[in-house]
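Input/output pair, single chain:
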Amino acid sequence: MSLYNRIATGLQQDRKGYSLPRDLYVSEEAFRFDTAVMLKSVWLFACTVAHVKNPGDYFVFELAHNSIIVVRGRDNQVRAFWNTCRHRGARICTEQRGRAPRLICPYHQWTYGLDGALLAARSTADDFSKADNGLTPVALENVGGLIFLCLSDDPPPIDRVKADIADQIAAYDLEKCKVAVQDNLVEHANWKLVMENNRECYHCDAGHPELISVLGTYGFGKGLPEDGHADVVDDKAFDAMVEAKRAQWQQLGIYRELIEFPDGWWHRVARLPLANGAVTQSIDGKLACRKLIGPFTEPETSSLSVWSQPNSWHHFCCDHVVSFSLTPLSADQTLLRTSWLVHEDAVEGVDYDPDHLAALWRTTNDQDGRFSMLNHQGIATDGYRPGRYAVEEKLVEDFKQFYVDRSRAALEGLA
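Output:
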């Protein structure tokens, strides 16, 4: 049976309301399909504009064997190119992040401008055209400061996502933020399990005491009054708090209705009140950076959360932004990248302490890494059978359905 037939068989076995068949999580065939076919057909979050803040700044995004350079040009535009020289294919950028006035291949020193144009190539034939040998572009969309890439030559639409997300995160002005901390954590689990773990807070009460002390659990799988699932946990006090906060959000001009994967699209945006008097997502609920961002002139006790299928989630607070992305490394390993952004004028040691800034989500990431590992280890056994989702895991099923639908579409595209 061919690779694609095995994947098609697994997708046919999927049942609504249940987790995926084992091989779609743990097999080498599924890993090869995901990285070579499915994930190349969708938009993937790569980084923020703060990762390439100044002209010449570059960021390398990798998916399995593929490597893409995201770079800011002298004209301040952010572009993406395949990280392979047009001469004989050598990798150009060998560091994950950096800054350079030009992009120079380390092999034979072919030199490219920040716009991808070939500037210099020694000993070429008389009929050689520099104009025809610039770096090969990759589809890129700047969504309010979040950079998405599609590795396909025929990217799917992204207009609805751009409109909905950019409208809400524009207030935080990511162009005026900088990356204060970045962590790269390798989780020992399949990438889909890492995503599924993020898409629910069913495990939070027992698994994340630090997180829920400031974030709560509503809106992360448990119902909100406006999403039709408020009866998941009946809490009139929470409902009243949300109503009171909405009036404040409207005065600040930051209130929008809940957006929850509308019309088959792949994004969710929700503003949620923080818990227990917290003013930001920090280990103690206190400001993690004294220099506030966006429109905020004083601490504001909510955060804006943005989720995008299939590989990112982000939290926007009054003093900082936390951005998460993941990419599969192997069938049983996933790279989780977490970046903490603060105001560009914030001074380390004066306005923020990097360890305090990162403490809450570092703790949470470590806890989630263990849960995802245990999940993968259990699924890899012969005793695993797809399990029924709990009511609070509706966002997990949203992700699973996205994966199934896009995988089927990608297989049809190969026919």
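The longest helix spans residues 354-379. Confidence is low (pLDDT under 50) at residues 226-233.
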